[in-house]
Design brief:
The complex is a heterodimer of chains A (about 400) and B (about 400). In chain A, about 40% of the residues lie in helices and about 15% in strands. With about 400 residues, chain A is α/β, with parallel strands linked by helices. Chain A has two domains: about 250 residues, Rossmann fold; about 90 residues, formyl-coa transferase, domain 3, CATH 3.30.1540.10. In chain A, the strands form three sheets. In chain A, strands 3-2-1-4-5-6 form a six-stranded parallel β-sheet, with helices on both faces. Helices cover about 40% and strands about 15% of the residues of chain B. The chains are: A alpha/beta (about 400), B alpha/beta (about 400). Chains A and B meet through helix 2, helix 6, helix 7, helix 8 and strand 6 of A and helix 2, helix 6, helix 7, strand 7 and helix 8 of B. Strand 6 of chain A pairs antiparallel with strand 13 of chain B.
Chain lengths: ~400, ~400
């Protein structure tokens, strides 16, 4: 069966994480994604030998193109002319300064779909704010809300906002493709990273707009059930997460612990009592978990139908038997780095699965194919442009 | 303006693990029918509530996940319920569900069964661990997914336990992946004429958004550890101000930053030549942070951010929900959207959808009350008589 995006060509001006994360999904499902970079433009010459670059850019092609040279713009227009989609995640002035805005590209390819992904969006007083994942998390409320009561704001320990933005951009693009399949029409899509992340935090927004309550951080606690939280286990910095969700589960939980006397305390007789006394309850639960490895706790509690998981670190993830069975990680052979291992995709489609057939490209690796075969340039023209620093 | 997914019909049988998937598609114009058990989905029994009044029509979590959907009630475990579901499947493009693996099979409602009824059907299943593998029958929620997905270990401080991000992130991320998968299936259905099955796991979805974690392990054997608000590369950290906190970058425009501190006599030893080297700063973050903290503490977060952005520093205030709702950029872009809740006689302001298409719009409408569209769908669309619908309701089928 054909790949889901077989025949789709994407001209990819994205860099770092958010943009490449979106175009990566397209490449994984069969689109021909052509990354445009340049040795001569700072930031556009990402080191293709890093694990970071290789993870976000597998399955993609690369051409080198120096857009500060006048001849380069024509080449870019010709590339847009043979593409279905253009994606970029620069600040708003960049593509405009290169005269590669949607209005201009649309002249060449009327049904083109162009996606601009930026921190604050392409309109509004803040459009030119320099924004990174950390600042988007801060502005969205996620940093403030992700901490323990009484502690400074902590946030998520990785670039969560960039991932969310990439997913939202990919979804929007696929919706525009579906619309184009129906109508033949392309269009422009403006995605703000801040809006993408904030839309996931709508419950906190509603609590303020509807209840005038400025939600305070709650750490790992659950106002509805107990015991529910993160508990220290045997070993160095080893923890498990336990989430009970019914009275029946509490009975099974007590059984696993061997019905210690404290479980019969009236303070823990019902769920609402347990929630009220959760601090004391958590201390007692941890008195049990501390004598077991997180794997033991997980298997014992899952064995009686209670949601429980090891707090996995990177080493645990790499050895996780469920992830292994599901084929979550895979490797490809890279010409310089040797074997490169990366995550695949959680999207498991039965008829049009993803495939991982190509390591991330080095800069300009596909110049001959793209400029020669796709655009029809001669070897002489390509050599001349290369010599002049246009490629 | 048109709606991207006008004409697409989705049956949503998901619980809170996957409800956001069809919310995303509903906002873009799909006709989403939320199928709840008679009496309503259990999520309606969880807060926070409007006005802190526990009521199945006032759960903010339910609202967020189920805006832009119509609502029916149906007991799919009953024989008649199964038949009704199959009738609905005939005209559906997509079904989204989050039942434990094997549950729908036992009811005769597996993908295999339903695709016989409608070969063009796309069935998306979101579960904790997926449909296969040694842990497929494990129980899961957002806390457990964040733990096993390698995300929780990264957040918190060295002297605190690991910390789960706020806001059921694993449910949202898995739902985003599911929506993407559904669109991929719709696109490929155009050339194959057939639907397909989508199998998604919360744990995998979470592990897929841990940025540097797997990379640094496979590349360098490094196991990433939590370090408070300091980003893994050391580039950003939260600093306390007179009121609240600011997210400061520690590596950009260093000389300009030192000049600013100098102009206020707060620079201490940072003017020294050695601090101009990024690597030196990286190795002595504790010292840099303590000098900067003395300075930030005497300023307001707003003042530092406004001046900072003008000077090209990528700084931002650490906003609470109150600040988020009054963010001028979000307001200018008309991100927040008031929805009418006629049953309350009120307009409630929701977040909006995060896309601006030149030719398409999104439209969000209020979430359904329990069984709000039973008549409209059972009588109006399936052609059941009012008497029949009443009988089904009295027997607890709907």
């Amino acid at each position: 069966m054909k790949a889901a995006l077989d025949g789709l060509r994407v001209l990819d001006f994205t860099w770092v994480l958010a943009g490449p994360y979106a175009t990566r999904i397209l490449a994984d499902f069969g689109a021909e994604v052509i990354k445009v970079g340049s040795r001569h433009i700072p930031g556009s010459d990402e080191d293709s030998r890093t694990g970071y670059f290789n993870t976000w850019n597998r399955n993609k092609l690369s051409v080198s193109l120096n857009l500060s040279k006048p001849e380069a713009r024509d080449v870019a227009l010709r590339l847009a002319g043979i593409s279905d989609v253009v994606v970029e995640n620069f600040t708003p002035r960049v593509m405009a300064n290169w005269r590669l805005s949607y209005e201009q590209l649309k002249e060449i390819k009327p049904d083109l779909i162009m996606v601009s992904l930026s921190g604050m969006g392409h309109t509004g007083a803040w459009q030119n704010y320099v924004a990174f994942d950390a600042t988007v998390q801060a502005l969205s409320g996620l940093t403030y809300l992700t901490t323990f009561p009484g502690r400074p704001p902590l946030g998520v320990g990785c670039a969560h906002a960039d991932h969310v933005a990439g997913l939202v951009a990919a979804l929007a693009l696929l919706e525009a493709l579906e619309y184009r399949s129906e109508t033949g029409e392309g269009q422009y899509i403006d995605i703000s990273e801040l809006e993408a992340l904030t839309s996931l935090l709508e419950v906190a927004v509603l609590d303020f707009t509807a209840n005038a309550r400025d939600l305070a951080p709650e750490g790992n606690s659950n106002p509805d059930f107990a015991p529910c939280g993160v508990y220290r286990c045997q070993g160095d910095d080893r923890w498990c997460a336990i989430s009970l969700s019914s009275e029946e589960e509490w009975q099974h939980f007590c059984g696993v612990l061997g019905y210690p006397a404290w479980t019969k305390d009236t303070r823990f007789a019902t769920n609402s009592e347990r929630v009220k006394h959760s601090t004391e309850l958590d201390r007692l639960v941890e008195g049990w978990t501390i004598n077991h490895t997180p794997e033991e706790v997980m298997n014992l509690l899952q064995g009686v139908g209670i949601a429980c998981g090891v707090v996995s670190d990177a080493a645990s993830l790499a050895e996780d038997p469920q992830l292994r069975e599901r084929g979550f990680f895979t490797s490809v052979e890279h010409p310089v780095l040797g074997k490169v291992t990366f995550d695949t995709t959680p999207v498991k489609l039965s008829e049009t699965p993803a495939s991982f057939y190509r390591p991330a490209p080095s800069l300009g690796q596909d110049n001959d194919y793209v400029y020669g075969k796709l655009l029809g340039m001669t070897k002489k023209e390509i050599a001349s442009f290369t010599e002049k620093g246009v490629f | 303006m048109k709606l991207a997914l006008d004409g697409l019909r989705i049956l949503d049988l998901a619980d809170e693990k996957g409800m956001f998937c069809s919310r995303l598609l509903g906002d873009m114009g799909a006709d989403v029918i939320k199928v709840e058990p008679p009496g309503g989905d259990p999520l309606r029994q969880r807060g926070p509530y409007l006005g802190e009044v526990p009521h199945p029509g006032r759960s903010l979590n339910f609202w967020h996940l189920n805006a832009s959907k119509r609502g029916i009630t149906l007991d799919i475990e009953s024989d008649e319920g199964k038949e009704i579901l199959k009738r609905l499947v005939v005209t559906a493009d997509v079904v989204v569900e989050t039942f434990p693996p094997g549950y729908l099979d036992k009811l005769g409602l597996s993908y295999h069964d339903l695709s016989k009824v409608n070969p063009r059907l796309i069935l998306a299943s979101i579960t904790g661990f997926g449909q296969t593998g040694p842990r497929k029958n494990f129980h899961c929620d957002d806390l457990v997914a964040s733990a096993l997905g390698g995300q929780m270990y990264l957040s918190g401080e060295r002297d605190t336990p690991p910390l789960k991000p706020y806001g059921q992130q694993s449910y949202h991320i898995a739902s985003l992946f599911a929506a993407i998968g559904i669109l991929l299936a719709l696109l490929s259905r155009r050339f194959s004429g057939r639907g397909q099955y989508l199998d998604l796991s919360l744990v995998e979805a979470t592990a897929a958004v841990t940025e540097h974690v797997n990379i640094r392990y496979h590349d360098e054997g490094v196991v990433a550890k939590r370090q408070g608000s300091l980003s893994w590369s050391g580039a950003f950290r939260a600093f306390p101000c007179r009121n609240g906190y600011i997210m400061l970058s520690l590596f950009r425009n260093w000389e300009t930053l030192v000049e600013w501190l100098l102009s206020e006599g707060m620079e201490q030893d940072l003017k020294q030549e050695k601090w101009r080297h990024e690597e030196t700063r990286r190795l002595n973050l504790g010292h840099i942070a303590s000098v900067l903290e003395r300075w930030t503490k005497i300023h307001s977060a707003d003042e530092l951010c406004q001046r900072g952005q003008l000077m090209g520093f990528p700084w931002a205030k650490v906003c609470s929900p109150k600040h988020v709702v009054s963010n001028p950029q979000l307001k200018e872009r008309r991100f927040f959207t008031p929805l009418i809740h006629p049953e309350l006689g009120k307009k409630i302001t929701y977040a909006g959808a995060p896309y601006k298409f030149s030719k398409l719009s999104w439209r969000i409408f209020k979430p359904p009350l329990i069984g709000e569209h039973n008549d409209e769908i059972y009588q109006g669309e399936l052609g059941l008589s009012a008497k029949k619908v009443h009988a089904l309701a009295s027997r607890g089928i709907i």
